[in-house]
Amino acid sequence: MLESCTVCPRNCRKNRLKNEEGYCRSGLKIKVSSIGPHYGEEPPISGTKGSGTVFFSNCNLRCRFCQNYQISQEGLGYFISEEELADKMLELQVQGCHNINLVSPTHFGPQILKTIIMAKGKGLAVPIVYNSNGYESLEMLKLFDGYIDIYLPDIKYSDNKMALKYSEVGDYVENNRTAIKEMFRQVGELKLDENGIAVKGMIVRHLVLPNNIAGSYESLKFLASIYPDIQISIMSQYSPCHKAIGDPDLGRKLTKEEYEKALKWADDFGFLNIFIQEMGSSENYLPDFNRRNPFE
Predict the structure, then answer these.
(1) Within-domain flag for 90
(2) Is residue 270 part of a domain?
(3) Does 258 map to a domain?
(4) Does residue 4 lie within any of the structural domains?
(5) Alpha-carbon distances of 224 from 22, 115, 204, 209, 233, rounded to whole Å
(6) 280 is in which domain, residue-wise?
(7) What is the pLDDT of residue 273?
(8) Residues 201-219: what's their mean pLDDT?
(9) What are phi and psi of 285, to 5 degrees?
(10) Which domain CATH number covers 186?
């Protein structure tokens, strides 16, 4: 897959074994921006001791509104070998982190799979979280079957025209929905231990955007049509940054009314398991007392 790269649906066909860079601006060697405990994820992921997070540099999307654009678009970070990364994962486990959280891992899929196998061979036992933008290769996901415990994908758009305009990807919707189905096939609904910490399963994230650019209604409708009991996280944290600043449609914060409309749609579709966010916060997840929620 790396020799003629098909690691993600862009299928750049670059020879990354020879360090040729594809659309993701990545060659052979893994690049990360930071590794350490993180407390800003959904409560069953962060828990009380933090999620052992690996933030990968670069990305296979070009989201104009990316809040981590210095990492995803400008490539901030440093190179690390699979052996070194495996040892870092073990260090996070020793520190007491509940899981290993792979953030924006898609473009390093084969290298990450190799790393996980190494780390497990050295004693890594905590769950592995695959935390992605949802633009995934079905072939690569199938190789992860049995190695990933928790999937945390985005469902960013329900309209490819919006995906092309704001993330430079014209086939996001079909690939994203195929990926979500495969992820759910592998791990199923979210399962918790006796302390309320996730051990297996899936949470689908949806960031509500101004002017309904994300197409929240259709995305929620899709999820409800196939997985009405799935755990979803509806995020309100949007604030213009990167190339969204000054954009006529994205150049303002999300309004409370826009966010509440998305929550009402989720109600209308019958979702029972949902995380909501305090407006404008990327970390404050609130229990939704109007729904049956196992994380209250």
Answers:
(1) yes
(2) yes
(3) yes
(4) no
(5) 35, 35, 12, 20, 13
(6) 16-286
(7) 87
(8) 97
(9) -90, 130
(10) 3.20.20.70
